[in-house]
């Protein structure tokens, strides 16, 4: 039985009085039941049921011991993204690995852009925060920094007082771009969103200074260097922006671009999911990879090996674990995360 809305919550003192025991005995019934006799414990639980007392407030208990034993993950995506996107799931699994080892819980706080985002972050009963897919202008960064709790940003941006775990996205994009764009006359980048509006678009040579997501900005900068090294001015390079990291969206956009009079002959995608959609569109039009269109991905997920994709290999699971260790003070100064390029048959040799 729980008290109806508007009725004051029963107290442990009231439970103790009803059961005819001391407040300490009632408290031990919940916190250290081994120290209470079976008869006394039965009376306390019966009194609690009669009064509608649900047990000690875990928030108050956390304040007393100075820790919630919970980490908060601020997700700059819809909540379902955490379960549907393989890279996000891998990252969260890495955090969960560390939490399980340290007997910590994990709370996911999706950021929707609503006015109450900051309020929900401030109200979260967690010991520290990990931020995923944040932009330079995300108010969540300011909110977290103001709370003074340990916090780590994955991928960027760099924020005073907050830790950072990332790979060198610009260097990795340059390395895989040099391979993907080799021999290409019309290179194309299949990109993540440029800002929090997450608008799908097709642009040419965007000014990376106006890109608000650090990961997207750094990768575009690396791809720009690679294209220009192969003699392709950035102003002529098409960038297809996907609103979401979804193969279906990449497939639809690629199909439209392949129908142009000047279709791309090399596509560097910012994820293996996007690259999978690109490959499907090419095969639907009876094109060949890499003879007609060279393709590369990013992350070296299982689908990359299945499709024979050249890709950037990184472990988001390891990076998630690194973020969690940093927040818990087990790795105060995280080193740059490792990456490498895996060359397969989707690019020209």
List the helices and strands and how they pair.
Layout: H1 12-19, H2 23-31, H3 38-51, H4 58-65, E1 70-75, H5 81-84, H6 86-101, E2 105-110, H7 117-123, E3 128-132, H8 139-147, E4 151-154, E5 163-165, H9 169-180, E6 187-191, E7 201-204, H10 214-229, E8 238-241, H11 247-258, E9 266-269, H12 272-284, E10 294-299, H13 302-307, E11 310-313, H14 316-327, E12 340-342
Parallel strand pairs: 1-2, 1-3, 3-4, 4-5, 6-8, 6-9, 9-10, 10-11
Antiparallel strand pairs: 7-8, 11-12
Helix pairs in contact: 1-2, 1-3, 6-14, 7-8, 9-10, 11-12
How would you characterize the overall build of this protein?
The chain has 349 residues and is an alpha/beta fold. Helix content is 42%, strand content 15%. The chain has a 7-stranded mixed beta sheet, sandwiched between helices. Helix 1 crosses helix 2 (23-31), helix 1 crosses helix 3 (38-51) and helix 7 (117-123) packs parallel to helix 8 (139-147). The model is unreliable at 1-6 (pLDDT under 50).
Order of helices and strands: HHHHEHHEHEHEEHEEHEHEHEHEHE
Shape verdict: elongated
Proportion of residues in helical segments: 40-55%
Biggest sheet features: 7 strands, mixed
CATH domain class name of the largest domain: Alpha Beta
What count of helical segments does DSSP give? 14
Mean pLDDT: 92
CATH superfamily of the largest domain: Response regulator
Level-2 CATH architecture of the largest domain: 3-Layer(aba) Sandwich
State the low-pLDDT regions, or none: 1-6
Alpha-carbon Rg, integer: 26 Å
| Total domain count | 3
Per DSSP E runs of 2 or more residues, the count of β-strands stands at 12
Structural class: alpha/beta
The main sheet orders its strands as 7-8-6-9-10-11-12
Distance between the termini: 71 Å
CATH fold topology of the largest domain:
Rossmann fold
